[in-house]
Design brief:
It is built from 7 helices and no strands. It has 229 residues and is mostly helical.
Length: 229
């Protein structure tokens, strides 16, 4: 007997949100701290800027995720209402539509009709939501859950460069923030890739390359303007 297969697709939604939030928290906060540090600000101003970036970023992530996922939830609700009306007014046509879906997926017409009838008897709306529209319970939009997860992930990521800024002396901040953040991001990319079944080295590399560019750009801006905040 072969061992059971452990598929990773069910992780895709929460993994995407967690990686995006944590990555954004590290990159945006570290980049901003580097920019402020290279502009010649003192340690207190840098830390205040970092905490402000953490709070504002977490709230922005939560609000953005809530709005976008709420829009998805509204669309799903509208489609389900439309399908519910169609099932009430045209049950035979909806049965034939479901049968045709299964025929296109490879079932012979007799078996497709039998499966469609059985699923319609069990839960017609669920069958059409899943097989016609593509809405499943596991993939349903959950705005509050998405907002909380994104804010939490961002906060966890942003706290790392703020902590580094707190511990390092002012003279070491730009390079210390950049190097430590790349280590954090490389670890995040590797862990995310491993959780998704991909190459850990590739996952770490692609995160670090883009993030290094963002931090270099903000350091350049800070050094060019050199304005204390």
């Amino acid at each position: 007997m072969s061992p059971p297969e452990h598929h990773r697709l069910n992780r895709s939604s929460w993994l995407r949100a967690a990686v995006l939030g944590a990555n954004d928290g590290i990159v945006s906060t570290a980049s901003m701290l580097i920019g402020v540090a290279t502009a010649g600000s003192d340690k207190q101003a840098i830390l205040i800027a970092g905490v402000a970036a953490l709070v504002a970023g977490a709230m922005s992530m939560a609000a953005g995720e809530y709005v976008s996922v709420s829009s998805q939830a509204d669309t799903e609700a509208a489609d389900l209402a439309l399908e519910r009306t169609a099932l009430h007014e045209h049950p035979q046509e909806e049965l034939e539509e479901l049968r045709d879906i299964y025929i296109k997926r490879g079932l012979n017409p007799e078996l497709a009709a039998e499966v469609a009838q059985a699923l319609m008897r069990h839960d017609a709306l669920e069958a059409h939501a899943r097989d016609e529209i593509g809405i499943t319970d596991a993939g349903k939009a959950r705005p509050l859950q998405a907002a909380f997860a994104s804010a939490l992930a961002f906060t966890a990521g942003a706290a790392l460069p703020v902590l580094v800024a707190l511990l390092l002396p002012l003279a070491m901040l730009p390079w210390g923030l950049a190097s430590s953040s790349l280590v954090f991001l490389g670890g995040l990319g590797a862990v995310a890739a491993h959780a998704g079944g991909a190459s850990m080295s590739k996952g770490a590399l692609r995160v670090c390359v883009w993030s290094a560019g963002a931090m270099a750009l903000t350091a350049l801006v800070g050094s060019l303007f050199g304005v204390n905040v």
